[in-house]
Write a structure and sequence with these properties.
heterodimer; A: about 350 residues; ABC transporter involved in vitamin B12 uptake, BtuC; 2 domains; two-stranded antiparallel sheet; 2 strands; about 5% strand; B: about 525 residues; alpha/beta; Rossmann fold; about 20% strand
C-alpha cells in the first residue's frame, strides 16, 4: 500500500525538487497527449522544446517572449510572499501598454531622449493605477483581492479595445484598430544586430537584482514575508500591514505596467489589440513554479516562454492546435501543485508483514 | 485480571536528529490510577506521549496494552483502544463549531449531529465543564478550548486519558472541577496519565509518578509520600535553586496610566471593557488574575495597540496619550509584549530563530538604512538562546520545532532584551518547566529593578502571588482594586475573579469554592487540599 505520511518539518529539498519533477511529469503527459493526436512524441517534443532554441536567433526570440513574463512574475512574487493573491498582472500589463502608448504618441515626430524613458515610466504609472484601484478596493473596502484583480483584468482589456478602436486609433491607419506607429526615439534600442532582442532584457536583469535584494536583504522584505506567513505576528510586532500590502500591490502594478510598455515600445512598435497572449496569467504559473524566488522565477519564466514559442512552432510544423501551449502550461501548474504535497508529506510504502502487526481491536 | 496492567511501555527508544528524545524508557500504568509523568522541558515527556498516542513511531521497544502487545501506528488506532489525549497545543479547527470539531475526530462514532450535540451537552455537564456545542472555536477562550478537547476524549469509550499540562490554563475552581472529573473517571476504572509542572497538583492528585530527565527514567515515587521539593530535586537533578523568595517593590512614578477605559465588543463573544482604571508604576509588577475570557485579551490588545478604539482617550504612557497610536508607535515609546499565543502571534512558526529574534527587536540596531544586518541578527538570536537556556539544535531551527516552554523562553528573552519601559505579559510561564520558570521570573524581577513597569495577566495564581507587587482581578471586563499580595487573601481574590468587587462589605468566604484555603501566605500550597 502507498500512503502519504506527514513530515515532521517541511522538506527544503522537495521545495526544489518538486518543480523539476513537475516538469518531468509534464513531459510524460504531453508525450501521451501528442500520441493521442497521432504525432510521434519524440518529434513533437523536439519541435516543442528544442527547435525553437536550436539557433541563436531562436534564443533571442525566447528572451523577447520571456521579458514581459518575467517582469510580471517578479511583481507577483512580491504579492504572493505577502499572501496577497493578485491575479491581475494581465490587466496591469494592458493598462501599462495603453498609458505608455498615450505618452509615446506625444513623441511620434520628436527625437527627444526623454521619449523612451517617459513612455516606460508612463507604462509603470498605468500599471500602478490599475493595481492601485485593486489595492484600494481590497484594503479600504475589504473586497477580496483575487476577485477584484480578476475583474480589473476585464476592465483593462476592454479599456485597451476601446482605446485602439477609439481615441488612440491612428487617423491615417485605414480604420484598422491600431495606434499610430511610434517614433524611433520611443522604441527600445536593439541589443544585437539582426535580432529583435531589445534592452528590455537589461530592465529584467535590473528588476531581478532589485527584487532579490529587496526580498532577502531589507527589513521591508522581511516584514512582507512575516505578513504573508503569519498576520497576527505581524500585527503584534507593529508592522504597518496596509502600507506593506499597498506597497506590494503598487510594485507589482509598476512591474506589470512596465512589461506592457516594453511590449509596445520593444516588440510591436504600436498599440494593437493583441499585445499579450496572456503573459500576465502565465506569470502566475511562473511565480509559483519558481518558488517565489527571483532566480527560480527566471528559470521558470524561460521555460514558459519556451512553451509559448513551442506552441507556435508546433502549429506551423505539426498542424497542432494553438491551445496546445495553454494545455501544457496548465499541466505544469497541475503537476506542480500535486508534487508540492511532497514538501509536507512523504510517500511510505507499507508492505503487509504477517503476524508482526497486532490489530487495533481489544 | 488484577495483575494485568492497563499499560506497560517497555524499553521505548526514540532518536531524533540531534537528540535522543527517549532512551530505554519503561512506564507502567495500573487500572484506575492517576499516574504522573514528570520532567523538565525537553526531558522527553511529549515524545513518549506522542508514541503512546500513535503520532510518532518508536525506534525500538514495545507497548503492552491490557496484557497484549499492540502497535499503535496512528492516533485512530489509539482512540480505538480507548486512549484519549489532550495536547498542550490544542488541535481544534477555529472556524468550526464545538460539535463539528468533535464529530471530525470521532468519525463514525459521532452519530448524527443532533444526538452528538446532545451527548456533548450531557457529558460536559456531567463532568462539570459545560459547553455550548454550537459555538465556534474561534470565540472560545483557552480554558474553554481545553474543555472541548477533554470532552472530546470523554465521548470515546475511554480507558486511558492523557493530559499534557492541563491545569495551566485553569482557575483554582476549574482545577478543582477537573480533579473531581479525573477522580470520577478513575473510580469508573479509567486510568489517567497526567503531565504537569505544578508539583503540588501532582502530590495532591496522583497515585504514582515516573520521572524523566534527558530522555531517561530517573525515578519512580508515590507523590503522596513526597513533597514538592523532593520531587523537584528528582526532576532537576543537580542542586539548582528551585524556589526563590521575591522582594516586593513599591515602584516610582506612574508609567502606564489607564483612566476609565471602556470599549464596545466587536465580535459576538468579545468582552467589552468597562470603565477600567489601573496604574502601573516604573519598577513594579502589577498582576491581574482572572478566568479565561473575561476581558484579559481585550485589555492587552487595547494596551498593545492591536485593537485601536477610535475616540478613546483613556491610556497614557509616561504622560503621552497613546490611544490612537499604532502598535509600532507604542513599541517606540518602550512597550514590549509577550502575547498569550506563542506560535502564530508571539513567533512565526515557519521562520527560524534568527528571523523570530528580528520580529520585534528591529529597533535594537538590527536594521541599518532599511537593510538587515545579518551578523547582528544572528548574534542576538544566539545571545537569547544562551542567556535564557533555550534548548535547540541551533539558531536556524524553526520556531515551530521548539517545545512550548523553550519557545516561551525565547520570546520572553527577546522582549526583555529590548530593555522596555513597559512590559506586557500574558501567561509568562505557561507550560514552562521549573528551572526555566525561575529563570524567567528572575529576569522579570531584574527588569523591574531596572525601572521597567510590568503588567502580567495570568491564570496561574501561584505565579501571581509570587512575583506581583500589586495584585487584582478582572471579571467580565471590569477590574478590581489592586492590593499587595500579602494583604490579599486568596478567598478575596477568588471573589474578585468571580466579579464580586464589593470587597469591604461582603468579605465572607462562602460564595467561592469552599475548598480553597484561606491563607495566602503559603505560596507553595495555595491549591493544595487538606
Amino acid at each position: 500500500m502507498i500512503k502519504l505520511v506527514p513530515r515532521v518539518q517541511a522538506s527544503a529539498k522537495w521545495g526544489y525538487l518538486s518543480p523539476v519533477l513537475a516538469v518531468f511529469l509534464t513531459l510524460i503527459a504531453s508525450s501521451i497527449l501528442f500520441m493521442a493526436l497521432g504525432k510521434d512524441p519524440v518529434e513533437a517534443l523536439y519541435t516543442f522544446f528544442i527547435s525553437p532554441i536550436a539557433n541563436w536567433y531562436g534564443v533571442t526570440e525566447l528572451l523577447v517572449v520571456a521579458i514581459p513574463i518575467l517582469l510580471c512574475a517578479y511583481g507577483l512574487a512580491l504579492c504572493y510572499r505577502a499572501s496577497i493573491w493578485n491575479i491581475g498582472a494581465e490587466g496591469q500589463l494592458l493598462t501599462g501598454a495603453v498609458v505608455g502608448t498615450v505618452m509615446a504618441l506625444q513623441f511620434v515626430d520628436s527625437s527627444s531622449v526623454w521619449a523612451m524613458p517617459l513612455t516606460l515610466i508612463a507604462g509603470m504609472v498605468g500599471g500602478m493605477i490599475c493595481s492601485g484601484i485593486s489595492a484600494f478596493l481590497n484594503l479600504r473596502l475589504n473586497c477580496n483581492e483575487t476577485l477584484v484583480t480578476i475583474m480589473m483584468n476585464y476592465i483593462a482589456l476592454n479599456t485597451l479595445l476601446w482605446a485602439v478602436y477609439g481615441p488612440l486609433k491612428d487617423p491615417n491607419g485605414y480604420n484598422f484598430p491600431e495606434s499610430a506607429l511610434f517614433g524611433d526615439s520611443t522604441l527600445l534600442p536593439i541589443l544585437f544586430e539582426g535580432t529583435r532582442l531589445h534592452i528590455g532584457l537589461l530592465l529584467v536583469v535590473l528588476a531581478l537584482v532589485i527584487v532579490w535584494v529587496f526580498m532577502s536583504k531589507t527589513f521591508l522584505g522581511f516584514q512582507i514575508k512575516v505578513l504573508g506567513l503569519d498576520k497576527p505576528a505581524a500585527h503584534m510586532a507593529g508592522y504597518k500591514q496596509k502600507k506593506l500590502a499597498a506597497m506590494v500591490f503598487l510594485a507589482s502594478g509598476a512591474l506589470a505596467g512596465l512589461a506592457g510598455a516594453v511590449i509596445v515600445t520593444g516588440s510591436t512598435g504600436q498599440l494593437i489589440p493583441a499585445i499579450s497572449p496572456g503573459y500576465g496569467y502565465s506569470a502566475i504559473i511562473v511565480a509559483f513554479l519558481g518558488r517565489l524566488h527571483p532566480i527560480g522565477i527566471t528559470l521558470a519564466g524561460l521555460l514558459i516562454a519556451l512553451l509559448f514559442m513551442g506552441g507556435e512552432m508546433s502549429q506551423m510544423m505539426l498542424n497542432l492546435p494553438r491551445s496546445i501551449s495553454g494545455i501544457l502550461q496548465g499541466l505544469i501548474l497541475f503537476f506542480l501543485l500535486s508534487c508540492d504535497v511532497l514538501i509536507r508529506y512523504r510517500i511510505a510504502f507499507t508492505f503487509k508483514r504477517s503476524g508482526s502487526t497486532a490489530t487495533a481491536k481489544n | 485480571m488484577s495483575n494485568v496492567k492497563r499499560l506497560a511501555m517497555l524499553g521505548i527508544t526514540k532518536q531524533y536528529p540531534g537528540c535522543k528524545a527517549n532512551d530505554e524508557v519503561f512506564l507502567d500504568i495500573e487500572h484506575g490510577e492517576i499516574h504522573a509523568l514528570l520532567g523538565e522541558n525537553g526531558a522527553g515527556k511529549s515524545t513518549l506521549m506522542k508514541m503512546l498516542y500513535g503520532v510518532v513511531k518508536p525506534d525500538s521497544g514495545s507497548i503492552i496494552w491490557n496484557g497484549k502487545p499492540v502497535s499503535i501506528d496512528q492516533p485512530s488506532v489509539a482512540r480505538g483502544l480507548g486512549i484519549g489525549m489532550v495536547f498542550q497545543h490544542f488541535s481544534l479547527f477555529e472556524t468550526l463549531t464545538v460539535s463539528e470539531n468533535i464529530a471530525l475526530v470521532l468519525g463514525d462514532q459521532a452519530g448524527n449531529s443532533k444526538t452528538l450535540a446532545h451527548r456533548i451537552k450531557a457529558t460536559s455537564e456531567r463532568y462539570g465543564m459545560p459547553l455550548d456545542p454550537d459555538r465556534r472555536i474561534s470565540s472560545l477562550s483557552t480554558g474553554e478550548r481545553q474543555r472541548v478537547e477533554i470532552v472530546r476524549c470523554l465521548l470515546l469509550n475511554l480507558q486511558l486519558l492523557i493530559l499534557d499540562e492541563p491545569t495551566s490554563v485553569l482557575t483554582p475552581q476549574e482545577v478543582d472541577n477537573l480533579f473531581k472529573t479525573l477522580r470520577q473517571l478513575t473510580k469508573e476504572g479509567c486510568s489517567v496519565l497526567f503531565i504537569s509542572h505544578k508539583l503540588h497538583e501532582v502530590t495532591e492528585l496522583c497515585d504514582s509518578a515516573t520521572i524523566l530527565r534527558a530522555g531517561k527514567v530517573t525515578g519512580h515515587c508515590k507523590p503522596k509520600d513526597e513533597t514538592s521539593e523532593s520531587i523537584a530535586r528528582m526532576m532537576v537533578g543537580e542542586d539548582i535553586a528551585i524556589s526563590n523568595e521575591c522582594r516586593r517593590s513599591l515602584g516610582t512614578e506612574v508609567f502606564a496610566d489607564i483612566k476609565g477605559l471602556s470599549t464596545t465588543s466587536t465580535g459576538q463573544f468579545d468582552v467589552a471593557l468597562k470603565n477600567i482604571s489601573l496604574q502601573v508604576k516604573r519598577g513594579e509588577i502589577v498582576g491581574i488574575a482572572g478566568i479565561a475570557g473575561n476581558g484579559q485579551e481585550e485589555l492587552l490588545k487595547a494596551l498593545s495597540g492591536e485593537d485601536i478604539h477610535p475616540n478613546s482617550q483613556s491610556i497614557t504612557f509616561a504622560g503621552t496619550a497613546i490611544d490612537q497610536l499604532t502598535p509600532l508607535q507604542r513599541r517606540r515609546l518602550g512597550l514590549a509584549f509577550v502575547p498569550e499565543d506563542r506560535l502564530g502571534r508571539g513567533a512565526v512558526p515557519d521562520l527560524d530563530l534568527c528571523d523570530n529574534a528580528l520580529l520585534t527587536s528591529f529597533d535594537s540596531g538590527l536594521v541599518k538604512n532599511g537593510f538587515l544586518r545579518h551578523t547582528k541578527i544572528v548574534e542576538l538570536a544566539d545571545k537569547i538562546i544562551k542567556k535564557y537556556k533555550v534548548k535547540t539544535t541551533g539558531n536556524h531551527d524553526s520556531a515551530a520545532s521548539l517545545s512550548g516552554g523553550n519557545l516561551q523562553k525565547f520570546i520572553v528573552g527577546r522582549e526583555i532584551d529590548q530593555e522596555p519601559n513597559f512590559l506586557l505579559m500574558s501567561h509568562p510561564t505557561w507550560g514552562v518547566d521549573i528551572g526555566a520558570q525561575v529563570a524567567i521570573h528572575d529576569a522579570i524581577l531584574q527588569l523591574r529593578d531596572r525601572g521597567c513597569a510590568i503588567l502580567i495577566v495570568s491564570e496561574d495564581l501561584d505565579e501571581l502571588y509570587k512575583i506581583s507587587d500589586r495584585l487584582g482581578a478582572i471579571c467580565d471586563g471590569k477590574v478590581s482594586h489592586f492590593l499587595a499580595p500579602e494583604a490579599l487573601p486568596l478567598v478575596k481574590l477568588g471573589q474578585w475573579m468571580a466579579g464580586d468587587f464589593d470587597t469591604e462589605a461582603t468579605a465572607t468566604s462562602e460564595i467561592i469554592a469552599p475548598s480553597i484555603p484561606t491563607t495566602a501566605a503559603d505560596n507553595e500550597g495555595i491549591l493544595q487540599h487538606d
